[in-house]
TrEMBL record:
Annotated Aspartate/glutamate/uridylate kinase domain residues: 3-254
Keyword tags: Amino-acid biosynthesis, ATP-binding, Kinase, Metal-binding, Methionine biosynthesis, Multifunctional enzyme, NAD, NADP, Nucleotide-binding, Oxidoreductase, Sodium, Threonine biosynthesis, Transferase
Pathway the protein contributes to: Amino-acid biosynthesis; L-threonine biosynthesis; L-threonine from L-aspartate: step 3/5; Amino-acid biosynthesis; L-lysine biosynthesis via DAP pathway; (S)-tetrahydrodipicolinate from L-aspartate: step 1/4; Amino-acid biosynthesis; L-methionine biosynthesis via de novo pathway; L-homoserine from L-aspartate: step 1/3; Amino-acid biosynthesis; L-threonine biosynthesis; L-threonine from L-aspartate: step 1/5
Keyword NADP: yes
Gene: metL
Name under which the protein is recorded: Bifunctional aspartate kinase/homoserine dehydrogenase II
Co-factor(s): a metal cation
Every Aspartate/homoserine dehydrogenase NAD-binding domain range: 425-553
EC number, UniProt record: 1.1.1.3, 2.7.2.4
Matching InterPro entries: AceGlu_kinase-like_sf, Asp/Glu/Uridylate_kinase, Asp/hSer_DH_NAD-bd, Asp_kinase, AsparK_Bifunc_asparK/hSer_DH, Aspartate_kinase_CS, Bifunc_Aspkin/hSer_DH, HDH_cat
Organism field: Rheinheimera marina
Domain Homoserine dehydrogenase catalytic: residue ranges: 563-761
Similarity field: In the N-terminal section; belongs to the aspartokinase family.
Catalytic activity: L-homoserine + NADP(+) = L-aspartate 4-semialdehyde + NADPH + H(+); L-aspartate + ATP = 4-phospho-L-aspartate + ADP; L-homoserine + NAD(+) = L-aspartate 4-semialdehyde + NADH + H(+)
A molecular-function term among this protein's GO annotations: homoserine dehydrogenase activity
């Protein structure tokens, strides 16, 4: 079974409310391991208390305040705090003795012991089996190095089913002395534990759910990454990143576990994964405000990584210069003492620099400093430059402002095209599309930024520079109602390139495509209304799109995610001539007729099909055969046939009595469907046949003949053997005459449709990337000519 270690820091455990929030998170994972820090500032308070040991009066006051604070937290968190209160009193009573015996670490351990006892008790009160574990009962270090074998051996008998809540930050030496793991020690405890348990992932819960390409407080345009590959994470950590610590990552270097940074303030968000598997392109700009350059003697064999681990401070070998190290000002003295203890005498630069480092992306072609960044660097004239495959470091004599760092960030990270997306329709398909968008944003990051800039449904519209995908539904709900004019204004104001993704069923909305195109939008439609408008109107939109050089993609209007239009385009562009397209074009009718055997009423099956996201918003569009008629028209137009909807003969499935009135009224009398379909089924069954709703377009001597109708086919017929919801497209052409080309697969549903819309979007994105590259290329050529 997959095992996850969750680590909660002091700020996640600072109050009874935060403990409750942590318990809510763990409620969903009742078999996890948990590592906890001391609540809030408790460790600092214990340190301050230790400082007061020579001043008995103050010491007693502080001690009593601490005791009261822990009592209050326990009382506010637990219904039955008595056992923990007694434990706290016994620890408080021991403090003076520990201090007298110079056992400060035993005093500091109280914070984490309290957290683990309190959280385990709270979880137990909520009915979740859990135990508190003192990491000092199993975690052993020898000269600051984990003794993996001994620790694993000691841990084994302590494991309990349910939740094990372990103290972070504290451990013992192999001689049994209480020790702490230093700054960010609890994160380190969590990854050690993860490795001891062979965990699949370690979730570090903090107050951010992304790792940024630069410190967003200094560089507001920093990109939020939701995945970071190990190699870049290691380099970033070595440079002193506040979220990722070199020490924390070290136990996982040769373990397959992922490290996930998550926000306990936004627990639904999956967080940012640091993973060996990640193939995402990321890069970072990071800085150290005051750094010294330390030159080591040529014969020094010390390794900067190891020294950094010993000092628990960033110590970086300058890229390409193993004997020159870069360290923050605060680390200079400890470094010099450590070097001196090994008879190594180093030279320290007389001045401190503002160190700016670029952690390069993995792709070889993106490792060069862009021309824009080169110009910027020439202007700023750094005092020193170090560069290798992974990292570039610049040392500036004057501190860089936040604006300057932002400029450099902008110049260094490859100029990605930002494609502004406006999504219209947030129902079945729309919400699934938004669900899948984040993954696509990641997949294309570094090449194009798919920026959600607008969201609307039939009531509300929301526009912002960049909309968050985390809580789009609540944001949209709070957005104001819109008018046609206000919407058009917002659409017009949005920067290009921009794409409007129509996931509505609305004809009125589709009729506004010319306005959207005029406003500079590319269009992606899952809505079939636009592509089936009267021929003159349809052609006008096509022409306008061509004039304005924008795309109109609509692959999901037929076969949902099945690439049937693309298939026809490919055949035609390769010189083939299509003579007929036929088959099953409705996912809903395919599903209904394959499922309908009389055991479940037809109307009940229709309800299920709706719940599965197959039907049109008004299911009568499916039952009437209109949806299939529209799809056949789309394919006819794909073949450049000047057809109108009415020219496609239609035999509806829907009884005429149900055709009028509201959708609600239709559902109220849906049992009429059962009466209508029972005899049709009985008839087919009597003949040993099955029912299928089929479409057929035949082109003979340039004339198109098209029809959609219900047929009954023998079990051996190619259209009989389908999986419910399958669409089947049978294409006959010059090259596929005797043995037609068949495309088959699920033809309706939220996921396949939203996936198909993403396929259209990815195609458009590729075109935008290619256009941006071409523009860059011609600019570069023009610049070369000028020189
Ligand atoms: N469900 C499927 O398998 C497939 C669906 N489609 C098409 O996808 C579209 C969406 O389908 P569902 O998500 O199932 O519909 P839905 O009814 O669940 O959602 C429709 C959304 O469009 C919004 N809307 C309606 N009229 C609007 C207008 N005038 N302006 C702005 N927003 C408007 C609604 O508020 C709602 O958010 C339809 O056109 C459907 O034909 C296409 C291929 C497959
Ligand atoms: N309602 C449609 C959805 C896809 O276009 C169908 O069932 O095929």
């Amino acid at each position: 079974m997959s095992l996850v270690v969750h680590k909660f820091g002091g700020s996640s455990l600072a109050s009874a409310e935060r403990f409750a929030a942590v318990a809510d998170i763990l409620q969903k994972e009742p078999t996890a391991w948990v590592v906890v820090s001391a609540p809030g500032d408790t460790t600092d308070e214990l340190l301050a208390l230790a400082e007061l040991r020579e001043q008995p009066e103050c010491f007693r006051t502080q001690l009593s305040e601490l005791q009261q604070k822990l009592h209050l937290l326990a009382r506010r968190t637990l219904k039955q705090p008595e056992a923990l209160l007694q434990l706290v009193d016994s620890w408080i009573a021991e403090i003076a003795g520990f201090l007298a015996a110079q056992q400060l670490n035993d005093v500091l351990a109280i914070g984490e012991r309290f957290s683990s006892q309190l959280l385990a008790a709270l979880l137990n009160e909520r009915g979740l089996r859990s135990q508190a574990l003192d990491a000092r009962d199993f975690l052993r270090l020898d000269a600051a190095v984990v003794d993996w074998h001994l620790s694993a051996q000691l841990l084994e008998p302590l494991k309990q089913p349910g939740l094990n809540v372990v103290t972070g930050y504290i451990a013992r030496t192999i001689q049994g002395q209480s020790i702490t793991l230093g700054r960010n020690g609890s994160d380190y405890s969590a990854t050690i534990l993860g490795r001891l348990l062979n965990a699949e992932a370690i979730h570090i819960w903090t107050d951010v759910d992304a790792i940024y390409s630069a410190d967003p407080r200094k560089v507001p345009s920093a990109r939020a990454y939701k995945q970071v590959p190990w190699q870049q994470a290691l380099t970033l950590a070595a440079l002193g990143n506040p979220v990722l610590h070199a020490k924390t990552l070290s136990p996982l270097l040769d373990a397959p576990a992922d490290l996930v940074v998550r926000s306990s303030f936004n627990p639904e968000h999956p967080g940012c994964k640091v993973s060996q598997q990640s193939a995402i392109e990321v890069q970072f700009l990071t800085d150290i405000q005051q750094a010294a350059l330390v030159s080591l003697p040529a014969n020094c064999l010390l390794n900067a990584h190891e020294v950094a681990a010993q000092l628990q401070q960033p110590v970086i070998a300058a890229p390409g210069q193993a004997q020159q190290w870069l360290v923050p000002a605060a680390a200079v003295d400890p470094l010099l003492s450590l070097l001196a203890s090994q008879q190594v005498y180093a030279r320290v630069s007389p001045q401190l620099y503002h160190l700016v480092a670029w952690v390069k992306p993995a792709a070889r072609r993106q490792k060069q400093v862009s021309t824009q960044a080169q110009h910027w660097l020439q202007r700023q004239a750094p005092a020193a430059v170090f560069n290798d495959e992974q990292l570039a470091v610049w040392l500036f004599e004057q501190p860089l402002s936040s604006l300057e760092l932002t400029e450099l960030h902008q110049a260094l990270l490859p100029s990605v095209v930002q494609l502004n997306l406006v999504v219209a329709g947030t129902g079945n398909v729309g919400s699934e599309f938004l669900q899948l968008l984040e993954r696509q944003q990641q997949a294309l990051a570094g090449q194009i930024e798919l920026n959600l800039a607008g969201l609307l449904n039939s009531r509300q519209a929301l526009f912002a520079e960049s909309l968050s995908l985390d809580n789009w539904a609540e944001q949209l709900q709070r957005a104001p109602l819109y008018t046609e004019q206000s919407l058009q204004l917002a659409l017009q104001e949005l920067a290009e390139p921009k794409v409007l993704i129509d996931l509505t069923p609305s004809r009125a909305f589709a009729e506004r495509y010319p306005q959207f195109i005029q406003a500079g939008f590319d269009l992606i439609s899952a809505n079939k209304q636009g592509v089936t408008l009267p021929l003159a109107q349809f052609q006008q939109i096509k022409q306008l799109a061509a004039q304005q050089q924008v795309q109109w993609l609509s692959n999901t209007t037929v076969g949902a995610g099945l690439p049937v239009q693309r298939l026809l385009q490919e055949l035609r562009s390769s010189g083939d001539t299509v003579h007929a397209v036929s088959g099953i074009f409705s996912g809903t009718l395919s599903w209904l007729l394959a499922k309908f055997d009389g055991s479940v009423p037809f109307s009940a099956l229709l309800k299920q099909a709706q719940q599965l996201g197959f039907t049109e918003p008004d299911p009568r569009d499916d039952l009437s055969g209109k949806d299939v008629q529209r799809k056949l028209l789309v394919l006819a137009r794909e073949l450049d046939l000047p057809l109108e909807l009415e020219q496609i003969a239609l035999e509806p499935l829907l009884p005429a009595a149900l055709a009028e009135g509201s959708v609600e009224a239709f559902w109220q009398q849906a049992e009429l469907l059962d009466l209508a379909f029972a005899p049709v089924l009985a008839d087919a069954q009597q003949q040993g046949k099955v029912l299928r709703y089929v479409a057929e377009l035949r082109i003979e001597q340039g004339q198109a003949k098209a029809q959609v109708r219900l047929v009954s086919v023998a079990p051996e017929h190619p259209l009989a053997a389908i999986i419910p919801c399958d669409n089947v497209f049978v294409i006959e052409s010059d090259w596929y005459q005797q043995n037609p080309l068949v495309l088959k697969g699920p033809g309706a549903g939220r996921q396949v449709t939203a996936g198909g819309v993403h396929a259209d979007l990815a195609l458009l994105a590729k075109q935008k990337i290619a256009a941006a590259k071409a523009a860059q290329h011609s600019q570069a050529q023009a610049a070369a000519w000028v020189k």
